[in-house]
Amino acid sequence: MGAIEDAARVLEKYVRPGTFPVAVRISEGVALPDRARRPREFLGHPVTICQGISMARSMGWTVGFLREDHACVPSFVVLGLAEEPEMVRSGDLVHPLWGETLESCALTQGTIPALPLGKAKSIVVAPLDRAGFEPDVVLVYGTPAQMARLIQAALYQRGGAVRSSFVGRNSCAGELAAPLLTEECQVIVPGAGERLFALAQDHEMSFAIPRQRLEEVLNGLGATHKVGAMRFPTPFQALRVKPQFPEKYRSLEEMFGI
Questions:
Q1: How many domains does the chain have?
Q2: Do 205 and 19 form a contact (C-beta atoms < 8 A)?
Q3: Tens digits of residue pLDDT in 33-80
Q4: How far is residue 43's CA from residue 168's CA, in Å, rounded to a whole number?
Q5: Burial per residue of 99-128, b for 16 or more beta-carbon CB atoms within 10 angstroms, e otherwise
Q6: Which of 27, 96, 102, 153 could cross-link 220 (Cys pair, CB 3.0–4.6 Å)?
Q7: Looking at the domain assignment, is residue 101 inside a domain?
Q8: Residue 12 lies in domain
Q9: Domain for residue 249, yes or no?
Q10: Inside any domain, residue 255
């Protein structure tokens, strides 16, 4: 079993995500795997990168993006496909949708990480267990309980905290740009676009693991599971508690010898 398949196996064993973990390759070149489906070609129109990620994690497809396959205007800046226009930098693009004033919109925009221009000329997303390439980032979607297990694993060896920022939109900034730029794990609350277009569910969050941290996180999952302080599914200690019933049950408890 190869390293990537083994990583998928470990995530399945200890995290049990409801959809496939996603391998993401981001390249300054434009070569795509032969089996990669390009949205422009197989759909006839571009889609958002978060839609492509959902195709990989929900349908098991390998999806390849070149510049013309992207449909999301904000992601062009996040992914380094275009320089940041003044309309974006000033907050005008999202005012008054996401902020009361231009100043508040600009302040939020200034916190959103973005890749250098030309860094992501091609992006490939695929289910981790059949990716066939070394990922730059691995994305795992799940519940808060599953995110907690990944956070615990990420901190097992080095300690500290997983530091992420949240703006309620531009999920791809947290899922792709931030882990690539910082080489650190990120927790992401799916934003507006990922929910509207990519069908991220009400209960879902995501966790981004950069290539540099993958082995450490996988080892941390195994180690923390073995210690047993927390696992997934959650080993609820309340299952051991003596149940308390209404007072009226007492007579039957005595009758039944409970």
A1: 1
A2: no
A3: 999 999 999 999 999 999 999 999 999 999 999 999 999 999 999 999
A4: 28
A5: beeeeebbebbeebbbbeeebbbbbbbbbb
A6: 153
A7: yes
A8: 3-235
A9: no
A10: no
- How crowded is residue 223: how many other Cβ atoms within 10 Å of its Cβ? 13
Give every CB contact of residue 203 below 8 A, 6+ residues apart in sequence: 143
Residues 3-39: pLDDT tens digits? 888 999 999 999 999 999 999 999 999 999 999 999 9
Beta-carbon contacts of residue 225 (< 8 Å; ≥ 6 apart): 14, 231
The pTM score is 0.94
**Sequence letter at residue 201:** Q
Q: What is the end-to-end Cα distance of the chain in Å, rounded?
A: 53
Tokens for 58, please give them: 């929900």
Q: Are 171 and 192 in contact (CB under 8 A)?
A: no
Residue 257 within a domain? no
Q: In what order do the strands lie in the sheet with 63-65?
A: 63-65, 122-127, 22-27, 137-142, 205-210, 186-188
